[in-house]
Write a structure and sequence with these properties.
The structure holds three protein chains of three kinds.
Chain A: E1 3-12, E2 15-25, E3 30-35, H1 41-49, E4 56-61, E5 64-65, H2 71-76, E6 79-82, H3 94-102, H4 109-119, H5 136-148, E7 154-158, H6 166-179, E8 184-188, H7 192-198, E9 201-206, E10 209-214, H8 217-221, H9 223-229
Parallel strand pairs in A: 3-8, 3-9, 6-7, 7-8
Antiparallel strand pairs in A: 1-2, 1-4, 4-5, 9-10
Chain B: H1 2-12, H2 14-29, H3 31-53, H4 62-78, H5 83-105, H6 110-131, H7 133-136, E1 142-143, H8 157-180, H9 182-199, H10 204-230, E2 232-233, H11 243-253, H12 258-274, H13 282-296, H14 300-316
Antiparallel strand pairs in B: 1-2
Helix pairs in contact in B: 2-3, 2-8, 3-8, 3-10, 3-11, 3-12, 4-5, 4-6, 4-10, 5-10, 8-9, 8-10, 9-10, 11-12, 11-14, 12-14
Chain C: H1 2-29, H2 35-50, H3 58-81, H4 90-112, E1 117-118, E2 126-129, E3 132-135, H5 136-158, H6 160-170, H7 172-177, H8 182-204, E4 209-210, H9 214-229, H10 234-254, H11 259-273
The chains are: A alpha/beta, B mainly alpha, C mainly alpha.
């Protein structure tokens, strides 16, 4: 297992955002987490990534217990978190965005640019433009490409297709399916068709808890089943 | 259940307890000193509405105290030397400042709020010391003489003590009412999560403005009382460097509670009146204690006592 | 009038140098560092003490004064500011830095006494500019401020450290998610800003009188500079500093004591039209 979460509790102010969550991700698996807004999915991802500290439970990443480690250290160990809202460094150019991502990994700029361009060839034109000027879809692809710099072991992605037009969703879909099997991923996603076609396993969350898990490929491909699952 | 009943019982007579406390203090410290203490407590109460309940730290609250003091003195000098009129003038002065500056100030939070108030305090100081020096006698300060009203000569310190005590009790009642009311609840919600209040449909801007104005008005009232008490007003009443005093008092007493404000006011006045006799490096001491409060003792004396009390009662009921 | 304008630009230059640190700390940590005023004041006082020991060589004394204050800035950052990081503690951080300032001022009074100290113009030459004799020293200050501006631009636009800070100012969490310990870089920036504050104190010392409360006076005006220029915007700080410096000089010419107050009036007006929601 590349990631094991056991009995995780995370507080949000006085409330419990995540209660007793346990899940696991095997190497190379693409696991999706579905659920309505406010179910605690983002809080869960953020805690695994090291932005929040859990009140109880453990997170084991790549063989080591890591809850309590801050986000920077998790990233250095090979965990990449891709935020919701497609946040790029808008004041910096695309090239500089890539530069910052490459900096802690020691990857040379040329290789880093190749990684990102490999995901999204169209971005080459924009390398020296301010990242703030990119469209939502371009940003998402930049972020995904950036996350791949330095060959991470696990990707945590929060709602990659949110707010995107259909055509762009297909692009993101293509990228994700290209990544499938090459590295482990946990993706929070509300777009069920995408989930259905890509997932190896699906967890459903509601009000901070895991409702259940779909593991049979037949169930997963069956969109109706997935919807009912929610 | 026992805990609640006990608190409620004390609550109902708290005004009497406060009065008794200060009446007891008077022979110990001297009637005049106690009056000083009480005036400062009113100021702290005004400040704590903003800081403790609404969560806005101002570093320039002396402005409103000073405005009240000068308004009262100027009123006595040029309009009418009836002391109660002057008190009204002082309060009005503070309130007007709140109404006018509110829209600018209340939009900000955190560091901006603290410093904008300080900046305005600085402007006020300048106005008093330089711009309107003709009226205020600038650096030297001006005397404020009030006429006796039908036997009431506020130069008599026992009378002054009585008037101040009654004022303090009124302000305590007012603050308690305010903070226990839905208004107080809304202020605390603004403190914790303003966005949520806005989502719930409240015009937080108006409420913040209102709270600010109440705070400045009561501070002005305290200023006017000072004017009556000392029979003179100097720029030190509006000195921005002294604004930290009320911050200290609110912290050491326990922010967010009426009783905490009282405790803090007394504590600060006690320290500032008696400690310089023993400690030469006064400002350094203040700074060190402030640091200790911030790092180790945020709840203040009253907060600490409350915590002890609830812990003890919690154990008893087991 | 030319003399007034030159004076305004000189003040503006000093304000800019000091305000850089304030603007950066505000942008990165969202707190106002009152202790910044202490570093500024200490820079001036250390200069006063060191000058006679280095044969009155101003540049040498200046460098020493700036370097001496850096450890103090580090201690303040590590033990006061960093402990109170975070949105819940902003108010406490402000109170704490104010407390540090109080302690520092009293310590300065203890060591150096409270009486104001005057330093003489280190260059002592005047240069004719547009028909008016201006002290060369003031022009040097303006030059230093402009040089620092270009250094800052270069730093933030071209160095990786600078870019990390720019990115961190916009989105701290995203920088962390890349594996960069962004707080460490914020500390570096804090130290740079503090060193600049000390430099400001050093440069301003010969023009004004050195006294324990000089930091107090200047920090409010610097805050106005930061607010008017836009929080965290160094270019804005540059423009605002010189603009407000001119306001001070021109107001000072016509209505002496109102000089600094006018700055706050300008600030209030700016805030009315461009309210800041922090």
């Amino acid at each position: 297992m590349i990631l094991t979460v056991a009995d995780l509790d995370v507080a949000y102010g006085k409330a419990r955002a995540v209660s007793g969550v346990s899940l696991h991700v095997a190497e190379g698996e693409m696991v999706f987490i579905v659920g309505r807004n406010g179910a605690g999915k983002t809080t869960l991802l953020k805690t695994v990534a090291g932005f929040l500290a859990p009140a109880a439970g453990t997170v084991t990443f790549d063989g080591r217990v890591t809850n309590g480690l801050p986000a920077e250290r998790m990233a250095v160990r090979g965990l990449r978190y891709v935020f919701q809202d497609k946040r790029v460094f808008s004041q910096l150019t695309v090239r500089e965005n890539i530069e910052l991502a490459a900096y802690p990994t020691g990857v040379k700029m040329a290789a880093a640019i190749d990684t990102v361009v490999g995901i999204h060839p169209g971005i080459r034109r924009f390398l020296d433009s301010k990242a703030g000027g990119l469209s939502g879809g371009q940003r998402q692809l930049l972020l995904l490409g950036r996350a791949l710099i330095g060959s991470p072991k696990l990707l945590l992605i929060d709602e990659p297709t949110e707010g995107l037009a259909a055509g762009t969703i297909r692009e993101v879909f293509t990228v994700l399916s290209g990544m499938k099997g090459h590295l482990s991923m946990v993706i929070v996603e509300q777009n069920l068709p995408v989930v259905s076609q890509l997932a190896d396993r699906i967890y459903a969350m509601r009000e901070g808890r895991i409702l259940g898990e779909l593991t049979e490929p037949a169930d997963i491909k069956d969109r109706a089943k997935v919807e009912a699952f929610l | 259940m026992k805990t609640i009943c006990r608190f409620e019982r004390w609550r109902r007579v708290d005004i009497l307890l406060v009065a008794a406390a200060f009446l007891l203090l008077a022979p110990v410290l001297s009637v005049q000193r106690t009056t000083d203490f009480m005036i400062f407590c009113i100021f702290v109460l005004a400040y704590d509405l903003l800081y403790g309940h609404m969560g806005r730290l101002s570093f320039g609250h002396m402005l409103y105290l000073g405005l009240g003091a000068y308004a009262a003195a100027l009123c006595a000098e040029h309009l009418n030397d009836n002391p109660f009129f002057a008190l009204f003038a002082g309060t009005l002065g503070g309130a007007l400042a709140g109404v006018i500056l509110g829209p600018i100030v209340v939009r900000t939070t955190g560091a901006c709020f603290a410093l904008i108030n300080l900046a305005f305090n600085q402007v006020g100081y300048f106005l008093v010391v330089a711009a309107f020096a003709e009226w205020t006698s600038g650096e030297n300060g001006m005397s404020a003489s009030f006429a006796p009203i039908g036997g009431f000569d506020l130069g008599n310190r026992y009378l002054m003590f009585g008037v101040t005590l009654i004022s303090l009790l009124v302000v305590v009642l007012l603050m308690r009412r305010l903070t226990d009311s839905p208004f107080g609840l809304l202020l605390r919600t603004i403190k914790e999560n303003e966005r949520r209040s806005i989502f719930l449909g409240y015009n937080t801007y108006l409420y913040k403005w209102l709270a600010f104005t109440i705070s400045t008005a009561v501070a002005g009232f305290a200023g006017a009382l000072s004017s009556l008490n000392y029979a003179f007003v100097t720029p030190s009443f509006i000195d921005p460097a002294r604004s930290v005093e009320v911050v200290f008092a609110a912290l050491i007493g326990g922010a967010g509670s009426v009783y905490g404000a009282l405790v803090g006011g007394v504590a600060f006045m006690a320290i500032s009146n008696y400690l310089p006799n023993f400690v030469q490096r006064w400002e350094m001491f203040l700074g060190v204690v402030l640091l200790l409060l911030v790092f180790k003792f945020r709840e203040g004396i009253w907060g600490y006592l409350l915590r002890l009390q609830t812990a003890r009662l919690g154990e008893k009921s087991r | 009038m030319i003399g007034t304008i030159a004076y305004g630009l000189t003040i503006g230059g000093i304000l800019y140098i000091i305000s850089i640190g304030l603007s950066l700390t505000f942008g990165t940590m969202r707190i106002v560092n009152f202790a910044h005023a202490l570093v500024y004041t200490l820079g001036a006082y250390v200069l006063v003490s060191v000058l006679p020991r280095v044969g009155n060589l101003f540049p040498v004394a200046a460098v020493i004064a700036v370097l001496v204050t850096v450890p103090l800035a580090y201690v303040i950052e590590r033990y006061v500011i960093r402990q109170l990081y975070g949105s819940q503690s902003i108010d406490y951080a402000i109170i704490a830095t104010y407390a540090v300032l109080l302690i520092g001022i009293d310590a300065i009074k203890w060591v150096w006494g409270a009486a104001p100290i005057s330093l003489s113009d280190p260059i002592g030459l005047a240069v004719p500019v547009l028909g008016v004799e201006l002290p060369l020293y003031r022009l040097v200050i303006i030059g230093v401020a402009i040089a620092i501006f270009f250094l800052m631009e270069g730093f933030f636009r071209r160095t990786v450290v600078g870019k990390i800070v720019v990115a961190g100012l916009e989105d701290r969490e995203a920088v962390r998610s890349l594996g960069i310990e962004v707080d460490r870089y914020f500390t570096i920036v804090f130290l740079i800003g503090s060193a600049l504050a000390a430099l400001g104190g050093v440069l301003y010392a010969p023009i004004t009188s050195v006294h324990p409360y000089m930091g107090f006076q200047v920090i409010l005006v610097c805050f106005a500079v930061v607010l008017v220029g836009g929080l965290g915007s160094l270019r804005g700080t540059f423009v605002a500093a010189f603009a407000l410096g001119l306001v001070i000089a021109v107001t000072g010419r016509f209505w002496g004591s109102a000089a600094e107050t006018m700055v706050f009036v300008v600030m209030a007006v700016v805030l009315i039209f461009k309210p800041i929601e922090v």
